[in-house]
Amino acid sequence: MRDGIREDILNCLQKHPADFNNLLEMMNDKGYEIKRGKHTAIRGKEQKRFIRFRSLGEEFSEGNLKKVIAGEMAPPTKNEKPNMPE
Predict the structure, then answer these.
(1) Which of 12, 19, 46, 50 has minimal Cβ neighbours within 10 Å of its Cβ?
(2) Global pTM?
(3) For the segment 35-46, what is each residue's pLDDT rounded down to a tens digit?
(4) Is 35 in a helix, a strand, or coil?
(5) Rounded Cα distance, 60 and 1, in Å
(6) In terms of Cα–Cα distance, which of 36, 47, 44 is closest to 7?
(7) CA 78 from centre of chain
(8) Which helix (H) or strand (E) holds 34?
(9) What residues does 51 pair with on adjacent strands?
(10) Is 33 helix (H, G, I), strand (E, B) or coil?
């Protein structure tokens, strides 16, 4: 489940979204439900629970994704094992 979300995020990043909100819109168009609040979370069609972006790995946290979109950081690679936040 999480691997599929990570892969879809990487595919959206390749389309060069203008900002984080644009990335969320792209994910919404792919069929994901987005929950905004203190922690942004995402849920696929077949999922019962939302998953916080930060729980997908450090590279997929909201802050790091914003840095990738701004060009301040390289995007994560598919072969990279995600670093889980402590």
Answers:
(1) 46
(2) 0.86
(3) 999 999 999 988
(4) strand
(5) 15
(6) 44
(7) 13
(8) strand 33-35
(9) 42
(10) strand
